[in-house]
Design brief:
heterodimer; A: 246 residues; alpha/beta; Rossmann fold; six-stranded mixed β-sheet; four-stranded antiparallel β-sheet; 10 strands; B: 210 residues; mainly alpha; 2 domains; 8 helices; globular
């Protein structure tokens, strides 16, 4: 495992090309090894924010009011198109829909995709595939056709594909969505063992309570709250105002 | 880490190459035959049908697949005299096209029945086929299933809102709309898959995993 990474977001504002403003002046920083939950209603901008951590969106304009030249910094490195490769080595991104991420014909082949792109030799790739499949409890699934997996298995296979790249930060977009309680439990156990920086976008408050030390509340593209998990989760009014509890 | 897994992953069984070579030989032979050599063509057709039976293909499964394939190859066969004129030998030409297509289709069907797709992919990599071709084939196979599932969901959703008998024209319009929706969703999915590939370090070069 590579060392945990630090994240810094400075006045991040972003709009898609169709004119939708998704993020407005979002600023926060994450220390190495910190475990953050990103909460917010659907459409709050959580997924867009996570995509920025992987330099997967057009570079946002730099903040005007500061001398800083970049909005998103990963271990001090600006998350721009020019730095995409080192950034993606540091931050592993798990997408919401496993069908988008699981493109290999077998589980082993899919998990090997990232390590092969890192330019590792085949023995090292095989070692990483075996290790990450073991980490997610799918050690017997290397030769399994990806079509023949349950949703929970697909999500864990996707996570194995990310872990095989040994990122210092995991950014997870709704990892518990549509999982049954046993699937959630298994995934939470895997994430609890991860020693790097964790950024978890979710609606699952039980998982947040268990996995996160700190919560960021994002609503309508704005950062509305930032504080320790226990404090935020006890603020019933805040949770209601931002659609986190009914 | 078990060494056996490494060797298993990298070694393609010799039988895979034999099956691939057999299919290729049948296709090449079929393509070299014309309507005039119908006894040989008939024998080849009989062999491929027997191979289907030996591979455990049931008659109903075969019939379903042929029901999809035969109209397409017939259209292709008819398009030749339609574009070049109905000469005296147009039936032989069309018959040759159908025969070649049918035997090749059956050979391909047999191959994917007797060879797991992943082994086929590994064999193609081992034969040094361009990585981009093999990767495209593997991805197409993967996402055909996803697309099929998506089609099933759309059809179910449509049926759930079809109360009573609808007119044929309404069904056709709904079908066209569904195809359009599938195309849009496929484009969106393609975009998301590309992002997921970039996120795992893809730089445009396919690196084969044997």
């Amino acid at each position: 495992m590579t060392s945990a990474v630090a994240i810094e977001i400075r006045q991040l504002t972003f709009a898609y090309s169709d004119g939708r403003n998704v993020l407005h002046d979002v600023s926060f920083s994450v220390s190495p090894g910190e475990r953050i939950a990103l909460l917010g209603p659907s459409g709050a901008g959580k997924s867009t924010l996570l995509l920025h951590l992987n330099a997967l969106l057009p570079d946002p304009p730099p903040p005007a009011s500061e001398e800083a030249t970049a909005c998103v910094l990963i271990d001090g490195l600006p998350a721009t198109a020019n730095n995409a490769n080192p950034i993606r080595r540091k931050v592993g991104l798990l997408f919401q829909n496993p069908e988008d991420q699981l493109f290999g014909s077998t589980v082993g082949r899919d998990v090997a995709f990232g390590p092969l792109n890192l330019g590792l030799d085949l023995d090292e790739v095989q070692a990483r595939v075996d290790q990450s499949l073991e980490d997610v409890g799918l050690e017997e699934f290397a030769d399994r056709d990806t079509v023949r997996l349950s949703l929970g298995e697909r999500k864990r296979a996707c996570l194995a594909g990310v872990l095989a790249c040994q990122p210092g930060c995991l950014a997870l977009d709704e990892p518990f969505a549509n999982l049954d309680p046993r699937g959630c439990r298994r995934l939470a156990d895997i994430l609890a063992r991860f020693s790097g920086t964790l950024l978890l976008a979710t609606h699952d408050l039980d998982a947040v309570r268990e996995l996160a030390d700190r919560i960021l509340v994002l609503d309508d593209g704005r950062l509305c709250a930032d504080g320790p998990t226990t404090t935020i989760l006890q603020d019933r009014q805040l949770l209601t105002d931002h659609g986190l509890v009914a | 880490m078990p060494d056996s897994r490494i060797s298993r992953a990298r070694l393609v069984p010799a039988t895979a190459f034999l099956k691939l070579a057999a299919s290729l030989a049948v296709v090449l032979t079929a393509c070299s035959l014309s309507w005039d050599s119908w006894p040989a063509a008939g024998a080849l057709l009989a062999v491929t049908l027997a191979a289907q039976a030996l591979a455990g293909m049931t008659l109903s499964s075969l019939a379903r697949r042929l029901a999809l394939f035969l109209p397409m190859i017939t259209l292709v066969a008819i398009s030749i005299p339609l574009s070049q004129g109905f000469t005296a030998s147009w039936m032989q030409v069309a018959g040759t096209v159908i025969l070649r297509g049918l035997v090749s289709f059956l050979a391909g069907l047999w191959l994917i029945r007797v060879l797991p797709f992943d082994t086929l992919v590994s064999a193609l990599y081992a034969l040094r086929l361009p990585a981009v071709v093999v990767a495209s084939l593997a991805m197409m196979h993967r996402y055909l299933f996803v697309l099929w599932e998506e089609t099933g969901r759309l059809r179910t959703a449509r049926r759930a809102r079809c109360l009573g008998r609808s007119k044929r024209i309404t069904q056709w319009l709904a079908g066209i709309s569904m195809v359009g929706m599938l195309v849009i969703r496929s484009l969106d999915r393609g975009h998301r898959i590309h992002r997921a590939m970039l996120a795992r370090g893809w730089d445009g070069h396919i690196r084969p995993w044997p």
